[in-house]
């Protein structure tokens, strides 16, 4: 990889030069039939504020310059450049007219959007270019597998390749005429057949990929194999399937090392390796994963007995996070997770804002030491945006106390805090039935409901008079001789605007609190985004919030709080102002 490529890209990223490209996809899509969005009736209740002045627009998360985005597609690291494709509606801030937009980065922080990579041109994708993945083939040749919507609105799988491998940006992609390479035949539901994964190669030299599907309520990961990436043959049974769960969207299947944080290329298998299988469940609009073993010779994935393979199972993120996808970054030898976070405001608001949807901060992902779950942490590159820092340590939070974190721009910050609790033995008893629904528990036991050990944590995006705040906090319960730690990201008080979606998200944390009383929390706050990492990334929750205070001149507050009987100590707290991450649009499409 030539440094000149880096420099060239970097120059384009840091210089606000709007190079104007002309390209012709627009004509090509004009006649296609799409799911066209109809302008909804204006809501009768007008918002008490103007939402067009971008107060909710994130400044360091990947966000579209305008219009709707959803799933990350085919992320990859290729010859020194990160490529992020994503589902995009070039015509508005609501879902529809879906194509693959294309952004480039050398640091996962600053992005340059170039022209769209894949858009309807052929019969096999004339009604839409939906999600898919990239695979790097032998000879360092990238390939994309994606779902096309054909003239009969059937979902089919297609392949696409870069037109010019010497172009460092891989700007143009072609779709061979032999597409589709996988069709919904032999009992596959043509309306439930989509989102092919990154392919992996087995020891027999054959490529494999899975496509998400369902029959009635049976969720399925249909397995295909190919010697040449051109002719794909369906295996006799799915890689994995689960009853009573419905459509599996955006499956992801990849190896992780039993020990250490190093990532693995998707084709690696063998001793010291486990596999992670993730699906996005259309039924709940949340994602679930299991850790297990991949038996290549049997073409089967079997989750470990410690992994719950149902809607009560593990999630990467217990909040607004969906359609995620990982990729292997061969540069830094790590596996990176990208995910979409949708808006929680109304469609009317989205139209007024002119944009909808963001990508969460890319997260490094590895298997926890206990082998039962994954751990996620924002990529280290994001720390390059940290500016002015404020620090606190050794402070005590008595019951009902609140401590302001001063000297930081609270609407755009990165906060890391370690708490220490005492008096664990006085934790409230835990009812076993609560295990299946942490979100419900967070709804009942909110930040303002006093407890014994907790609730304690952070109040973010708070108004001066505390009529608005988002509470990210922990609460510890006692169950027999053990402790159960609940983490909540409670948006119920996040905004005085009645029309926005304000759930109290929650997940349990496999914490070390029993050993030393300590628990950590990191929050990435970015206007309408609150992305939180409990216990060093063991439990993650993303909330989207729309406080009115962001549209006023008054100060936005950040506080540490404790509403539990037992005193909580802040071992250390660091908070940084965050600079903007650039998303430059050089695609010039309308
Ligand atoms: C391929 O890309 C290289 C590098 O950008 C460029 O110099 C060359 O002209 C391109 N070839 C074609 C056929 O477009
Ligand atoms: C096929 O998928 C569509 C779309 O989800 C669904 O409405 C239909 O019931 C499915 N048919 C079967 C047999 O599962
Ligand atoms: C509290 O502050 C918000 C905005 O910061 C304002 O809209 C609201 O009217 C205030 N409420 C009270 C009771 O002062
Ligand atoms: C995001 O928006 C909220 C509020 O409208 C919905 O309840 C969620 O289902 C939706 N999430 C996804 C993944 O679409």
From TrEMBL:
InterPro entries with a match to the protein in the record: ConA-like_dom_sf, Fructan_Metab_Enzymes, Glyco_hydro_32, Glyco_hydro_32_AS, Glyco_hydro_32_C, Glyco_hydro_32_N, Glyco_hydro_beta-prop_sf
One GO process term, biological-process aspect: carbohydrate metabolic process
Pfam families recorded: Glyco_hydro_32C, Glyco_hydro_32N
Keyword Membrane assigned: no
Gene Ontology molecular-function annotations: hydrolase activity, hydrolyzing O-glycosyl compounds
Keyword Repeat: no
Keyword terms, alphabetized: Glycoprotein, Glycosidase, Hydrolase
Chain ranges of the Glycosyl hydrolase family 32 N-terminal domain: 61-378
Glycosyl hydrolase family 32 C-terminal domain mapped to chain residues: 381-577
PANTHER family registered for this protein in UniProt: BETA-FRUCTOFURANOSIDASE, INSOLUBLE ISOENZYME CWINV1-RELATED
Family per record: Belongs to the glycosyl hydrolase 32 family.
Record-given protein name: Beta-fructofuranosidase
Species lineage: Eukaryota, Viridiplantae, Streptophyta, Embryophyta, Tracheophyta
């Amino acid at each position: 990889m030539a440094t000149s490529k880096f420099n060239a890209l970097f120059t384009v990223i840091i210089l606000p030069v709007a190079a104007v490209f002309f390209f012709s996809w627009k004509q090509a899509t004009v006649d296609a039939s799409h799911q066209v969005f109809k302008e909804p009736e204006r809501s009768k209740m007008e918002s008490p504020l103007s939402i067009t002045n971008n107060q909710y627009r994130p400044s360091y998360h990947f966000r579209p310059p305008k219009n709707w985005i959803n799933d990350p597609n085919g992320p990859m690291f290729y010859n020194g450049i990160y490529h992020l494709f994503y589902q995009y509606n070039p015509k508005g801030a609501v879902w529809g007219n879906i194509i693959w937009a294309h952004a480039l980065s050398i640091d996962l922080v600053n992005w340059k959007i170039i022209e769209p990579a894949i858009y309807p041109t052929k019969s096999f994708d004339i009604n839409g270019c939906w999600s898919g993945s990239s695979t790097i083939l032998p000879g360092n040749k990238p390939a994309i597998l994606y779902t096309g919507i054909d003239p009969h609105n059937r979902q089919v799988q297609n392949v696409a390749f870069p037109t010019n491998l010497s172009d460092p940006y891989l700007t143009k992609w072609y779709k061979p005429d032999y597409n589709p390479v996988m069709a919904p035949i032999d009992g596959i539901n043509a309306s439930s057949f989509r989102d092919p994964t990154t392919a992996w190669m087995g020891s027999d030299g054959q490529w494999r990929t899975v496509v998400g599907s369902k029959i009635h309520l049976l969720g399925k990961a249909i397995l295909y194999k190919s010697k040449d990436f051109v002719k794909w043959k369906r295996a006799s049974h799915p890689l994995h399937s689960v009853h009573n769960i419905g459509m599996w969207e955006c499956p992801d299947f990849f190896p992780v090392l039993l020990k250490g944080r190093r990532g693995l290329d998707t084709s690696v298998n063998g001793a010291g390796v486990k596999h992670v299988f993730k699906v996005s469940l259309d039924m709940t609009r949340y994602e679930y994963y299991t850790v297990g073993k991949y038996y290549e010779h049997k073409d089967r994935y079997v989750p470990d007995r410690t992994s719950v393979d149902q809607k009560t199972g593990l999630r990467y993120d217990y909040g607004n996070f969906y359609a995620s996808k990982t990729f292997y970054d061969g540069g830094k030898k790590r596996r990176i997770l990208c995910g979409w976070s949708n808006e929680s405001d109304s469609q009317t608001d989205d139209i007024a804002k002119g944009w909808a949807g963001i990508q969460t901060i890319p997260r490094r992902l590895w298997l926890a030491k206990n082998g039962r779950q994954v751990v996620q942490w924002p990529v280290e590159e994001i720390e390059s945006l940290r500016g002015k820092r404020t620090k606190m340590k050794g402070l005590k939070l008595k019951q009902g106390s609140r401590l302001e974190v001063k000297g930081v721009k609270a609407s755009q910050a990165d906060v890391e805090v370690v708490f220490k609790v005492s008096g664990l033995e006085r934790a409230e008893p835990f009812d076993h039935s609560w295990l299946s629904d942490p979100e419900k528990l967070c709804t009942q036991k909110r930040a303002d409901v006093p407890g014994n050990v907790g609730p304690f944590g952070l109040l973010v995006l708070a108004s001066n008079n505390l009529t608005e705040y988002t509470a990210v906090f922990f609460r510890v319960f006692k169950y027999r001789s053990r402790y159960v730690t609940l983490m909540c990201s409670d948006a119920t008080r996040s905004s005085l605007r009645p029309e926005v979606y304000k759930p109290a998200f929650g997940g349990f944390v496999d914490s070390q609190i029993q050993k030393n009383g300590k628990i950590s929390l990191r929050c990435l706050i970015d206007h309408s985004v609150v992305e939180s990492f409990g216990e060093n990334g063991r439990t993650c929750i993303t909330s989207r919030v729309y406080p009115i205070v962001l549209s006023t001149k008054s100060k936005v507050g950040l506080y540490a709080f404790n509403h539990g009987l037992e005193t909580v100590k802040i071992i250390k707290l660091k908070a940084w102002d965050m600079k903007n991450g650039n998303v430059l649009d050089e695609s010039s499409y309308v």
